[in-house]
Structure formats: C-alpha cells, structure tokens
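We now fix the convention by which a protein and its fold are recorded. The integers have meaning only within a learned vocabulary of local backbone shapes. A record is reproduced here so that you can trace the correspondence yourselves:
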Amino acid sequence: MPRRRASSRFPGRSDVPWLVLAVAGAGVLGWGFWGNGAEAPPPAEDLRAASEDPSSPTPVARVPATAGTLPVSPGTVSLDGTAPEAKVAPDRAALCPGCDIVVITVCSLRRDHVGVYGEHPGLTPALDSLAADGVRFTRAYAASNFTLASLAAVLTGRFGSHTGVTGWDKGLTADVPTLPEVLGIYGYRTAAFTVDAPSGFRPDYGLHRGFQRMEIIPPPRDTPDGRFLQGDPTPQGATAGPLVGWLGSQDTSRPIFAMMHTRTAHYPFVLAPPADGEDPTGIRTLLWEAGRAAPTGAKGDQAMPGMAGGTAQKGVVSIAGPDPLQVQVRKGGAPAVAAWRQAYAEAVTRMDLDVKRVLDAIDARGRKDRTIVLVVGDHGESLDDHGELLHGDAYWDSVVNVPLLLRVPGLTGRDQVVDALVSQTDILPTLLDLVGAVPPAGIDGVSMAPLLTGAKARVRETTFVEGGVARQHSDVPRGAVVTAEWTLLRQDRGCADAPGRDAPRRPGEPATCLYARSTDASQATNVARSHPDVVTDLLGRWDAFRAANASAAAALTLDPAFVKSLQQNGYAFTPGPAVPAAAGTRARRPSGGGGSAK
C-alpha cells in the first residue's frame, strides 16, 4: 500500500469564535457563549505530524486543514501542538475542581455484555471494578447507531442534526466547540488515542480539535482489525499502550484530559482462524475471512464475508449478491447464532484488558483520588436480535441503549445505579460541571451531576438517536425518539412484527415502530397503530428540535481506500440520489433556541 506523507502543519483557528468567560479571581461569574463577535482563540493548535517508520505497512494519513478539504483517508496519525494559555480557573465549589479526566469510548459494546449489568457476569472484570467504585447508568442512549456520529455527540454535547454529522460523508464544522477545546482554556493538557480503522475519530472529520496530542496507531495484532498482521496474538490490551505511555509521561502540575477509543470488541471479533473441528457452523471461518477477499468466481463488487456485515442498508458502492455471513447464519439456525454471539463475547473480554491497562496506569500515576473516569459504548451490537446481526441498520435498544460507567473522586456512595434517562450528549456538560468548568451555550446536553448527588431524579424528558451508515433516499429522517415511557423508531428494516402489524408505508418511507417500556422491554410488539397520539407527540418533539437546531455539516468525500476499509469492517454501500435538505436545515447560529430534547 503506498505511503502517504502527513502535512507538516495544522493551521491555527483564528477565524473561529471562541468562548468568552467573565472571571473574578478564581470564580466564574459569567456564562460561556459562542457567536459572532466573540474573542478568537489563541493559535494553540500548531499541530505537527511526527515522522513514521517508512517500513511500516500502514500509511501515514494526510492531515486536512479543515474537515472536507481532503478526502477521508485511512492511515496513522501523530500530531502534537502547544497548549493554549490557561485563561480561566475552575469553580472551586464543583464536585472535583480541576480533576484529571479519562474517557474511554468502546466500539460496539452492548450494555448486557458488561458483567455488572447482570446478564453476562464475568466477561468484564475491569469494567465491573470501575462500576463497583462508581455509578452505572441503565438508560444511557447513544446519539446514533454508528461510531462517528456518537463520538461527535460525546465531544460536542449536540445531537447529530445539530452538528449535521449524521453519516460517513459528514464532518464537524469549525464553529462547533469541543470538550478538549473548553478544557484547554482551563489549563488542561489534552490527548486522544485510537487505532487506524474506520471510527471517524481522526482529523478528517474534525474530531481532533482541541486535542494537543493525537495518536492513531496501526491496529495491534491482538485486535480484530489487526488479525492479519504479524506478531503475537495473545490478548494484552495493546490498544491502550499509547495512552498508558502518555499518562506515565505527564507531570501533575497541570490537569489532564485523555480520551481513548477502543475497537477491540468490534466485528469481526476473532483473532485467529478456527482449528480443524472447532467450527461446525462455519461462522468462525467466515468471521476470520471477513472482508479479506471475494469468494472464488466473484465478479466486481459481489458481496464477500463481512462486506454487508449483517445490515440491510446501502451506502457508497454497488454490491451484488447476498452476504455469505447472513446466508450462513440463516442456514445454520440457532447453533450459528450461538457461535456468532460467543465470538462477540470473547472479543468483549479482550477489550476489557484495554480498560484494565488504563485503570492500572491511573493507579500507578498516583492520581486515582484526583481522576474522573468515564467509560461509554459508542453503540451496541444486535447479535441477531430482531434479525439484525450487527449495527447501523436499526435503532433497537440492543444497539442504542449503551453502557455508561462513571467514577468521580470524593462522591459519596459506591456501586450506585442510576435509572434516569440520559444521553451521550450529556457527557460534555457533566464532565465540565464536575471539574468546575463552564459549558458552551447552545448545546443539547444537560449535566448528570444532579443525578449523582441525588439533587434530581431526572434531567431530561426526551432523547434522540439520529443518523446512520446509509445514504438515505428521501428527506424523511431515520432514528429514534426515547422517553421514560416510550421508544419510537423510524427505520427501513421494519419493526420485526408479525405480518400485518406494521403500518402501511409509501415507497422510501421508513417503518414507524412504537414500544412501551414498562410492558415490552424486549421491544417485541409494535403498538404504533394502537397509539397514534403517542406517535404524533414523539414525532412532533423531534420535528420541533430539528426545525430549531438542524445545521449543515462539512461535506466530505471518501477516498477509495477508506471505502474499502469500511467494507472490510461490515458496512455495505451503494450510491444513491442526493438527499434533499431537511426542513429547517440552516446555517449555524450561536444558540439552540426551541425544540429542546432535554
């Protein structure tokens, strides 16, 4: 594969509105705002690409000046920049003023496969230890059913329609503030770490902004992404290595914010081919071969193992023929599904080693009593729930009701369970609240801190799940609207109901699925037809939010090499007609206005 040279400099953002805070002594008196006329930030993101070993089989990514100026391409990234001048002191009355923050986002992690949630005990001892010393949320919802849009929500505190980041061809615009940008002006050193694989956590999508250090390494051999590389496949948490090294190199004179995205639990789950006699269903063999080569005799873009990855949606290149994995699972029945789920469970246990290494590094640094740790799934995995094998096609709870664990030093109570409805968009304001920082105005998230202290029983009435891996063929949005009592889904896959239960729909229109949480936790019975008033109410909330907040993202093109990597990781794509702009889409404005999702 040809080597790409990273650009030597990432321009500063002197043209971007910045956060203005009124300060008296160490106390923050004013409220942050982002808008025309606000003070521009210092040129603190003088990011330079470090040299790479030219013998590396992984290309070095080209670094775009801003999202959309270059096609999205795979490759390693090593960026460093100077930190902005600390201009603001934290509020000393906060729960953990000036504390370090470590965030771990886990790709494809189902809530029920984290042991502490009770359904699969023993899979995740490191995550369980974190929960035992902190808080676990049972109704935390992803902002999307795929990684890029979820990570954008975590970093901005905004839903997908508010940033416009709802698909692989959309990036974050420069006027949307990010969590590390805010922490930077409070004196934090900030760093981000992941592996070179399709997650969107890279400069191409604008998600590097505010990180003074970003490192994207070749996928280690002990991960599914690195299964074809040379080296020792023994699980050892290698994905966490760069973060562990960075933590050990930081002195304690300034607080730190570090974020790691791990894909160790991601499809295709396996690290090695099965031995003779160990794969009676054929599923592990197909997982091992997923995306590597077309079947014998295949022509053009015929589907190969993993190219469709269990989804029914279409996105960026034509694919002919069925996905062999889908065919084999359906042919093999319950034993094939069991083999699929077992391979996933093993991957989750290997991922837990990534978490353990990070927790051990925090302990070794001697800062456990001054470090907030948050772990969240970017989305889950269907594992044949409702007939879907992976994610990106639908919005059932197995994909969007994600695990969320939080440990806050000094917080009274341990092994606490919070059942209130929360969203990934609430992570940004919560972390800023906990350390005494002021969040940007106009965000959709709300602080979860009152849930931790018992000051409130709930912080939001509604949350949204938006976007997906497909290029839609109409202007009708796909996603979910979730409340304490109801879940409404709008998805092309249908509602997996008995014949005649799904309401009739026009060509190109998604199905409307409504589930009552109190009586149908498994989302088995669509009651949309019998509760039209609820459907109207929930769709009205979503329409109002989008009308008030919908904004355009940076339009991106995908390099063929990146499209190929997406295919190899379970995403099926085909070209489609351009989607008309959704009603209410407009240029960015400083604040959100009406249509609140809170």
